[in-house]
Amino acid sequence: MAKKLPKTDVVIIGVGWAGGIIASELTKQGLSVVGLERGKERVTEDYYMAHDELRYALRYDLMQDLSKETITFRGNEKIRALPMRQYGSFLLGEGVGGAGVHWNGQTYRFLPYDFEIRSMTEERYGKDKIPPGMMIQDWGITYDKLEPYFDKFEKMAGISGEVNPLAGKRSNDYPTPPMLHTPSMKMFVEAAKKLNLHPYTVPSANLSESYTNPDGISRAACQYCGYCERFGCEYGAKADPVVTVIPVAKKTGKFEIRTHSYVRRILHSGGKATGVMYTDMTTGEDIEQPADIVVSTGYVFNNTRLMLLSKIGKPYDPATGKGVIGKNYAYQVIKGNAVGFFDDQKFNLFAGAGSLGVCVDDYNGDNFDHSDLKFIHGGNIAHTFTGQRPIQNNPVPEDSPRWGKEFKANSLKYANSVLTIGSQGSSMPFRHHYLDLDPTYKDAFGDPLIRITFDFEEQDRELARYLSDRCGDIMKEMGTDRILKMKELGPYEITTYQSTHNTGGVIMGASPDTSAVNNYMQMWDMENLFVIGASAFPHNSGYNPTGTVGALAYRAAEGIVQYSKKGGLLV
């Protein structure tokens, strides 16, 4: 029998960006909060002088241990899913701060089109533009309604940027100026303008200058060391929960973090959550933590799996299209890119930052006419300067041999003469793309693993080809004809890294018939349970998801405070 602890006002499952924001906002309002994190404690000092590519980038020191829990994957329902035994397509963070510790820091706002995608697509192109099986739906909230929460997240994190001329209206400028431009970034801007595009600097959680946020948290400026993605920041210059929201929650005296606490079930009775059951990984003891309000703030797979294991909400059935838990799993299309080889120019490719770059949104969302195109939405196109670390980077032209004298010669010749323009394409949900519990494979506790059923569709192939061609246009304008582009998007391959931008599974919307949570991230059928994260996205946009996760978390925090006082479903 599990050991039962005294009740708390709120229990949070996962202490990453969403969990940290919820803890900060609720404790400031006087609520007592317990945060359960299955990984270990983390502090900035852990990363002092730790530019270790082998440890962090290749051996995944900050990531979840796949030998204890992983996911299973299949491309379609006709084949058996198999466990992901080593990291490839995406990386699952673990520990205090979650994936917010090892992210690059690119902090976009989704477009107004994203939040009303079905209505706006049908209005402009007609219902026939949406192919059979595509499950896009409006989010139950508009960009204008969410804009103040985007602003609040950006001020908390100190986002450095300049206004995107093709995005939704802003109530304020970014709190800090854009990052510095490298020579190749200037080349991109000039080329884009010649093509009548609208370039702007990537919005960055890597601070361009020292900054003190509205909570009084001060952080230093980025040193452009090139160790962001897969790494913690030794300067605290990269906004992450450990150096922003978590200290604010701790200062109130109302927040307790319990590390190595693996939540296995949300407990409920009579249509309400009563708390959680977790295992203390240091002792093996099962513990029950009662709470008035339960908030699940885990990663996409964890949020969805916990709902299914706890038997909360109706599981999605792809045969009928009914049910909501596991529905609308989406990913990202990022293969459309162009690599340019410059014979007579050298660049300092080693320096950089996770969010150092310039981009255009002329081919994102519905910023361009799709009438004659065989896809909807689009993607952000960017030239980023994230730092080319030595072990994982050795680009050579396509016609080079893969070994020998010529390979070595080209490796040296192009080591600092290769530039990349990449695209980050949106991902639309389809009826046969979903998450459920695997019937065969289990974790270390004997609980079923989460199973992904997903593959790229014709929508994705058309989008990838289009974005790759547009990347090539800009690269050619930058001054080289020696360009390597994607020719064809093949089947989805889980063994090759693409992005950690998984979405869906516990999606938001305007009706319990088509969504699991409302626009405050409150479960329709369990009013004291809130599920926050990219699991709420009904589709994925052509951007990194963190900025939108942050905005939704701030709105959810406001709703939870309101619920703690009045109860009931929030409207």
TrEMBL record:
**Which GO terms fall under molecular function for this chain's record?**
gluconate 2-dehydrogenase (acceptor) activity
**Ranges of residues in domain Glucose-methanol-choline oxidoreductase C-terminal:** 435-553
InterPro entries given in the database record: FAD/NAD-bd_sf, GMC_OxRtase_C
EC number, UniProt record = 1.1.99.3
Q: Which Pfam families match?
A: GMC_oxred_C
* Keyword set includes Methyltransferase: no
Which keywords does this Swiss-Prot/TrEMBL entry list?
A: FAD, Flavoprotein, Oxidoreductase
The answer to keyword Zinc applying to this record is no
Q: Which family does it belong to?
A: Belongs to the GMC oxidoreductase family.
Protein name per the record = Gluconate 2-dehydrogenase alpha chain
Q: Which organism is it from?
A: Paenibacillus lactis
